[in-house]
Amino acid sequence: MRYVSGPMTIAARPGRLGPTTVPNPPLRPAEAHAPFKIVSWNLLRRTGAAVDDVAALVAQEKPDLLLMQEATRAIGFLLDRIGGHYAWAPLPGRIHGLAMWSPKPWPAPPRVITLPSGALVHRVCQILDLGTFGVANVHLSHGQMLNRRQLRRIVSELPPRAAVLGDYNIVGPAMIPGFRDVGPRRPTHAMVEVLPLRLDRCLARGLICHAHAVLPRGPSDHRPIVVHLGPAPEAHAPARFKGMAAAVARLRRADGSGVRARRDPPG
């Protein structure tokens, strides 16, 4: 059965994208002032958002990039409905996975990396190199230690300017050095329709978020989030990263001094 047309990829794996490879090109003046609109939505496999709902969201928001989690094979029909460019990365052994859609061609197909796995579900991540910055599409595990390990694996693959969007399944701060939580702060999911949680997030490094929003939920159990991202000036990023590294070092030294003081009381 033909379910997509156009440039679909399942597990494209070009060379490693990261700070150790070719650095991002210098920003042109137009790039520095042109926010890039990204929408992220957990569709809720099978019983949630279908192709018609996704097409309606695209028509309403007109994103430069749409990221989807819990996307089934049937979401590939999106290309027949609205055209564009689509990539799907199913989770191993599952009927659903991660998907990306864009109205314009990508500089290179998104690649897929394998994440540390839990006992039940094996996770992957889609990484797209846009040239001026990288974007990671994620659906992390529910375990609060495991999902942070997965996040650290992801950011190790990203260039200096990058954003990580999707369903984090994280409660509390992610605490990834160098990245700021720049997405909307409103709840995006209600556990058993009672406890509101902010599971859908955007962490960014070397980028400025010009605007963000949480959209109506629709047929899914998650609300889509929207961010408008643009590269931060090159001169601003190194100082911020250095300041954060210095702060972490000071905290570690202070903690070490406290431990020694407790172990060796004056006698």
Automatic annotation (TrEMBL):
Top-level taxon: Bacteria
Residue intervals of the Endonuclease/exonuclease/phosphatase domain: 39-222
Xref: Gene3D superfamilies: Endonuclease/exonuclease/phosphatase (3.60.10.10)
InterPro entries assigned: Endo/exonu/phosph_ase_sf (IPR036691), Endo/exonuclease/phosphatase (IPR005135)
Keyword list, A-Z: Endonuclease, Exonuclease, Hydrolase, Nuclease
GO molecular function: endonuclease activity; exonuclease activity
Name assigned to this protein: Endonuclease/Exonuclease/phosphatase family protein
Source organism (scientific name): Methylobacterium phyllostachyos
